[in-house]
Design goal:
The protein is mostly helical and 98 residues long. The chain has two helices and no strands.
């Protein structure tokens, strides 16, 4: 059994349910100048990696169509290229937005 006198008591001058948040313009500018560029560049890196993955998907589709011939081969290859084009378009659009 734990003795209640051994446990330190925490006392506060204000209620627990209130949080004092005083954001000033300089705080917001600091966050925008530090966090926003990190988010932009990390998103761009993610998109470039996704472009590489979509290129690998095209290669896998081509390898699959050489191994297993089906009537839908042309459609699968077309979908792979459309996917690659959409990813490249999103990257170009995000570069314009930087």
């Amino acid at each position: 059994m734990v003795d209640n006198q051994m446990i330190p008591k925490i006392t506060t001058n204000r209620p627990i349910d209130t949080i004092d948040v005083n954001l000033t313009i300089s705080d917001i500018n600091y966050l925008l100048n530090t966090v926003y560029p990190i988010l932009k560049w990390s998103l761009l890196i993610f998109l470039v990696l996704y472009l590489i993955i979509s290129f690998v998907v095209i290669k896998q589709i081509k390898m699959m169509t050489r191994t297993l011939e089906t009537p839908t081969d042309k459609y699968l290859i077309l979908l792979g290229y459309i996917h690659f084009g959409l990813v490249a378009g999103v990257i170009c659009f995000s570069l314009l937005a930087l």
